[in-house]
TrEMBL record:
<keyword id="KW-0030">Aminoacyl-tRNA synthetase</keyword>
<comment type="subunit">
    <text>Monomer.</text>
</comment>
<dbReference type="InterPro" id="IPR020058">
    <property type="entry name" value="Glu/Gln-tRNA-synth_Ib_cat-dom"/>
</dbReference>
<dbReference type="GO" id="GO:0004818">
    <property type="term" value="F:glutamate-tRNA ligase activity"/>
</dbReference>
<feature type="domain" description="Aminoacyl-tRNA synthetase class I anticodon-binding">
    <location>
        <begin position="343"/>
        <end position="460"/>
    </location>
</feature>
<comment type="similarity">
    <text>Belongs to the class-I aminoacyl-tRNA synthetase family. Glutamate--tRNA ligase type 1 subfamily.</text>
</comment>
<feature type="short sequence motif" description="'KMSKS' region">
    <location>
        <begin position="252"/>
        <end position="256"/>
    </location>
</feature>
<dbReference type="InterPro" id="IPR004527">
    <property type="entry name" value="Glu-tRNA-ligase_bac/mito"/>
</dbReference>
<dbReference type="InterPro" id="IPR000924">
    <property type="entry name" value="Glu/Gln-tRNA-synth"/>
</dbReference>
<feature type="binding site">
    <location>
        <position position="255"/>
    </location>
    <ligand>
        <name>ATP</name>
    </ligand>
</feature>
<feature type="short sequence motif" description="'HIGH' region">
    <location>
        <begin position="10"/>
        <end position="20"/>
    </location>
</feature>
<keyword id="KW-0436">Ligase</keyword>
<keyword id="KW-0963">Cytoplasm</keyword>
<dbReference type="InterPro" id="IPR001412">
    <property type="entry name" value="aa-tRNA-synth_I_CS"/>
</dbReference>
<dbReference type="Pfam" id="PF19269">
    <property type="entry name" value="Anticodon_2"/>
</dbReference>
<dbReference type="InterPro" id="IPR020751">
    <property type="entry name" value="aa-tRNA-synth_I_codon-bd_sub2"/>
</dbReference>
<dbReference type="InterPro" id="IPR014729">
    <property type="entry name" value="Rossmann-like_a/b/a_fold"/>
</dbReference>
Length: 463
């Protein structure tokens, strides 16, 4: 088998999005499963849409997720050319000229008004996907010369008539499109920049890409790209088009929908565990044969099987993502978590804190928030307690025991017996009185972590 080489080719027009991250991830898993290379390169020829920091966000966030490319703009292998399209313009021009010389492409002198007219005229006939009708042939030679001087032309591919462009899609099986349904399309725009469909083929060819996995919105581009491979006599890679990701209502995720956090950066800033997101994203359109869900990086690579890529849309379920994050948090070692907390508390205390709080935490940020209640000690609370008697009874029992987790637990148990209260009626007032919080993990441990002095001071407030 030919060396597997896959790629992720974002445009730096925005930050790394869930959809992009999933495309990158599946391309990465595919390559790694077959001991191949995974490449990241940048499609930055749509200059007006590029955003400052777009490329860096893509690369940094992929790295944070653990998707490390073998080659990228910051780690190129020169034998495959440049990894940013803006640095390859000469290469594209050279190949455009080759097609021109072989009469496989031609200069089209239409103005945008003429094209618009053509489009309208087609729409009147009920054709809504525009097909260029070789209008330029109708333009007089004199006029062509005038436009040539003013560089008012684009270059279009001369498609063969009635040719079937077929491929065996990795996700969807055989797809076939007739060239008559495409029309000669622009490969070089009048501003001298190549179009996406042309440049992407050159890049995939130059980089010896063997398999292309990308979003289903690219299905209509694939026959156009196959026509370029054919024009040059190059072998095309295999293609697979991943299904869309939807929100919980089944609508395609839109970057403008603020109800779902869609950028990897958001998860990073909120202190999610990258390994958990990596694992979660893996299951957005893929399942393991044994239906396992929680899997580490190496297991996923080993089990990845392109034949199990889903043919139906995948729902982005934030609840499930949080569940994943919780499972990962529970399984992280205390020392790993402690290293993220930047606390000055001593090791023993921190270990107990982490043991107590990691059972139910989703993010590092949440843990840090919990840590704050022990680091910045508040001296009063606004929260009211109805049953002050209960607090007095608890205090009596607490003072009668040693200040240990077991001692605190016995004090709670004694209070239960004496007051005949249980559940929320027992725990909530004790929790509020000692921790100044209405929610938290195991009560005795939460109290113990404050230390004897603070707990007694607080109990004295309830009179
Ligand atoms: N820049 C394109 C995109 O972001 C890449 C498409 C492709 O993978 O061919 O959708």
């Amino acid at each position: 088998m030919k060396k597997v080489r896959t790629r992720y080719a974002p445009s730096p027009t925005g930050f790394l999005h869930i959809g992009g991250a999933r495309t990158a991830l599946f391309s990465y898993l595919f390559a790694k499963h077959y001991n191949g290379d995974f490449i990241v390169r940048i499609e930055d020829t749509d200059v007006a849409r590029n955003v400052e920091g777009g490329e860096k966000s893509q690369l940094d966030n992929l790295k944070w997720l653990g998707i490390i490319p073998d080659e990228s703009p910051i780690n190129p292998n020169n034998k495959y050319g440049k990894y940013r399209q803006s640095e390859k313009l000469e290469r594209y021009l050279e190949l455009v000229n080759k097609l021109l010389n072989e009469n496989k492409a031609y200069k089209a002198y239409d103005t945008s008004e003429e094209l618009l007219l053509q489009k309208k005229e087609q729409e009147n006939r009920g054709i809504f996907s525009f097909r260029y009708d070789r209008n330029w042939l109708k333009i007089s030679d004199e006029e062509k010369q005038r436009r040539e001087i003013n560089k008012q032309y684009s270059i279009r591919l001369a498609l063969p008539e009635n040719r079937e462009y077929k491929w065996d899609d990795i996700v969807r099986g055989e797809i076939s499109v007739n060239s008559n349904d495409i029309g000669d399309w622009v490969i070089l725009k009048s501003d001298g920049y190549p179009t996406y469909n042309f440049a992407v083929v050159i890049d995939d060819y130059d980089m010896k890409i063997s398999h292309v996995l990308r979003g289903e919105e690219h299905i209509t581009n694939t026959p156009k790209q196959l026509a370029i491979y054919e024009a040059f006599g190059w072998e095309a890679p295999k293609f697979g088009h991943l299904t869309i990701i939807t929100n919980m209502e089944g609508k395609k995720l839109s970057k403008r929908d603020n109800s779902v956090k869609q950028f990897i950066e958001d998860y990073k800033n909120e202190g999610y565990i990258p390994e958990a997101i990596f694992n979660f994203l893996t299951l957005l359109g893929w399942t393991s044969e044994d239906a396992l869900e929680i899997m580490d990086h190496q297991t996923i690579i080993k089990k990845f099987d392109e034949n199990r890529l889903s043919k139906s849309p995948s729902k982005f379920d934030i609840k499930k993502m949080e569940w994943f994050s919780k499972q990962y948090m529970k399984n992280l070692s205390n020392s790993t978590i402690i290293s993220k907390l930047n606390s000055i508390k001593d090791e023993k205390w921190l270990n107990l804190f982490v043991d107590t709080y990691k059972q139910n935490a989703t993010t590092f940020t949440e843990l840090k928030e919990n840590l704050k209640i022990y680091e910045n000690i508040e001296t009063q609370t606004e929260i009211k307690i109805e049953n002050i008697d209960l607090i007095r009874i608890f205090k009596k029992h607490l003072l009668a025991h040693e200040f240990t987790i077991e001692g605190i637990q016995s004090a709670i148990d004694n209070t239960k017996v004496e007051t005949n209260l249980s559940g929320k009626n027992l725990f909530l007032p004790i929790r509020v009185a000692t921790t100044f919080k209405e929610h938290g993990p195991e009560l005795a441990k939460s109290i113990y972590l404050f230390g004897k002095e603070i707990v007694e001071q607080r109990l004295n407030l309830w009179k």
